[in-house]
Amino acid sequence: MSQAPLQMHAASDGYLLQVVGVGKVFRNAGQVIEALRPINMDVKAGEFICLLGPSGCGKSTLLNIIAGLETSSSGEVLSNGHAISGPGSDRVMLFQDAALFPWLDVQHNIAFGLRQAGCPAAKRDAITKQMISLVNLTGFERNYTYQLSGGMRQRVAIARALAINPSILLMDEPFAALDALTRDRMHIELESIWSATNKTILFVTHNVREAVALGDRVFVFSARPGRILQEFRITLPRPRMLEDHALVDCTSEIMAVLRQDER
Ligand code: ADP
User: Fold this and answer.
1) Residue 3 predicted with pLDDT over 70
2) Are 230 and 220 a contacting pair, CB within 8 Å?
3) How far, in Å, from the CA of 61 to the mean position of ligand 1?
4) Residues 215, 67: Cα–Cα separation, whole Å
5) 1: pLDDT strictly greater than 50
6) Distance of alpha carbon 224 from alpha carbon 94, whole angstroms
7) What is the DSSP string of 96-121?
8) Which of 186, 106, 116 is nearest to 148 (CA)?
9) What is the mean pLDDT of residues 84-103?
């Protein structure tokens, strides 16, 4: 009798994502840049993880390696116990620029990945409708991207990513270009989308308040070469209010760790 399912479970230890000794050195035209010191990180299904650190500390590099868009110089990334060797439909990346297709309207942008995957029209339409409702864009189905605000564009990007049903959303400073009020609203939207879908999220930011507002766990990175300085478990109740004293205290504690590293 095959032992494969048991072995797979043992290999992943119940973790959806494992980053094992992942380091990265860029070598370009005689220049050697150590971006990441070996990183270890275990993530359970459904967790909201924030990767926080100063610009240039290697957060995006780590996210790109997890997405399979970049190779590591050492270590490996396991998804469900299997070493990844490139991009996969289990992991979807979202960027600061929503990167929508300007020639498609909202519903066709959201349906794009499903169409590519050969999903039949009726099922595609049903999923698209469900995603539009999830991101609160009902009524905007026929709008083109130039007719949308920055926050709405990001909601379309989130819906498009979720439509293909990945287990992990990889978000690289997705709200950094938004104004402060829109960003706060997007935090509330994302938190509600996350609790409705039970997805696992890895969210890169250099904004301490954003990390504390969103994360179950916050991994604080050192300046380059990036390594994990400290991991914070944020147990504040949700939805979190930025003005809440406990959240402000938590933010100050993390700021102190980052300041200490600057010295
Ligand atoms: P962060 O996302 O934390 O701002 P990055 O991961 O973008 O940081 O970059 C980490 C370091 O690696 C930076 O010093 C950056 O210049 C360098 N880097 C990133 N990509 C490349 C590349 N393709 N070639 C050379 N250096 C790179």
Assistant:
1) no
2) yes
3) 6
4) 19
5) no
6) 23
7) SS----TTSBHHHHHHHHHHHTT--H
8) 106
9) 92
pLDDT tens for 71-90 read 999 999 999 999 999 999 99
Measured from the CA of 57, which atom of ligand 1 is nearest? Answer: 3
Ligand 1 interacting residues, C-beta cut-off 6 A: 26, 28, 33, 35, 53, 55-61, 224
Length of the chain: 263
Predicted TM-score (pTM) above 0.90: yes
96 residue type, one letter:
Q
Local structure of residue 83 (DSSP, 8 states): E
Residues in CB range of 245: below 8 A, 6 or more apart: none
Measured in Å, residue 234 CA sits from the centre of ligand 1 at 28
Are 137 and 130 a contacting pair, CB within 8 Å?
no
Name the residue of 55, 59, 61 to mutate for ligand 1: max ligand atoms within 8 A of Cβ: 61
| Alpha carbon 184 to chain centroid, angstroms | 17
Q: Is pLDDT above 70 for 20?
A: yes
> For residue range 207-261, what is the model confidence (pLDDT) as tens digits?
999 999 999 999 999 999 999 999 999 999 998 988 899 999 999 999 999 999 8
